Amino acid sequence: MTGGHHGYPTGPTACSEISVVGDDDDAVGGRRVWCADSRNDLVVGRAGTPVAEDLDHHANCDDAAECGLKGVEATDVSPSDQVVAVHQQALRMAEGDAFLLYHRLMLLCVDLDGVVYRGSEPVPGVGPLLTERVANGDRVIYVTNNSFLRRVEYRSRIEACGAPLAENGIVTAASAVAQQLLDQGFRHILVYGAEGLAAELRDAGLDACRTAEFDGPESLSHWGVDAVTVGLDREADWHDLAIATDAVRAGAPLIVPNRDANYPDPGRLVPGTGAAVAALEAATGVRAMAIGKPEPTLLLQAASIDGSDVRDAIMIGDSPATDIAAANAAGCRSILLMTGVGAGVGAMAIADLPAAQRPTWTARTAAEMGEILMAVTADGATSGN
Asked: What angle do CA 137, 139, 141 make, to 5 degrees?
């Protein structure tokens, strides 16, 4: 048997890869680490976990069933698969200590506007909580309907809130629209929205021009519009709406990131992308195809990036109509955080929401959200409200 990461054993009956979270290099010492059958399954955890077994006398055990992992079916633990993680502050293997199986690592799909920040202000406590969850082995992928920033522009905003951001850790409705346009073979895209949306489309290889670059139907016809998309633009005026209307009336498909009627700024809700989409639909009589939440597309993309089952993820959002509805459409659990759009939904009103918009849990603050996640971690809870 040879030494693995941090000196832990590897071999045909042990784990080939061990991911140690934190700086507890002596967390498991030289003991054998048993493996779970997927990276979302059982991991080593901190003292106090109900499932425990002293494996000190099983150093040479080659079979999980023989080792008697208490409370764990033998079929759930395979010595040939990869270990998940070693939990931060995991047990220190002094003589007689128990070897603990702790919790399932989770994918957290997290909305941005109204959850991590409101405008330029961080939502108190959310960034540090997400950082702690990542330190303990969970993964965070942000899923946002936002359509006025490029993905590369989010890093400073997220990190300023004390929140973690991994490589490929964000999926936006704008990037999903870009992929949809590419999949349909469109090239010339008219953007009724901010420059960030146009730049995201260009990054994907599309020829995107904003409505302000055209003076009427003639110039549009000369360029040859393949499709129209819409994003939040605080500087848009009647001219922009008229140009977009010309293009859609001429037959260009209308494919948009979202129908979010409102956008949470500090102290108030302001009109969102959905307001502009509604104006264009009213002017043309054409119904837009919306890609973002409440459709499950962004969550499915996040799970695909993570390599996990979306049904094991938890969506954290502030809007019942978009975030929670997307979670229900994708078949995953959800937390409604009442710090953005959700601030207008009282806990007593949850039962009055349409079934498709009811969350698994509700939280008024980051502290309450942390308690929910700890409970899920500890006992595998699958239902809330």
From this structure: 165
Cβ atoms of 81 and 37 within 8 Å: the answer is yes
Number of domains the chain is built from: 3
Q: Are 20 and 85 within one domain?
A: yes
Q: Which residue shows structure tokens 């979306």? A: 310
Q: Domain boundary at 262, 290, 318, which?
A: 290
Distance in angstroms (rounded) separating the CA atoms of residues 376 and 381: 5
pLDDT value of residue 344: 57
226 part of the active site: no
φ, ψ of residue 239 to 5 degrees: the values are -60, -45
C-alpha dihedral (272, 277, 279, 281), degrees to nearest 10: -160
* 111 tagged catalytic: yes
Question: Is residue 100 located within the same domain as residue 112?
Answer: no
Instruction: Report the pLDDT value the prediction gives residue 79, as an integer from 0 to 100.
Output: 34
Q: Which of 41, 54, 62, 113 is catalytic?
A: 113
Which of 41, 56, 62, 111 does the annotation list as catalytic? Answer: 111
Which residue stretches of the chain have pLDDT < 70? 1-104, 341-348, 378-385
Q: What is the DSSP letter of 56?
A: G
Please give the C-alpha separations between residue 81 and each of 38, 68, 76, 274, in angstroms, as whole numbers: 8, 18, 11, 47
Q: What's the token pair of residue 315? A: 């969506």
Is the torsion defined by CA of 74, 79, 80, 86 positive or negative?
positive
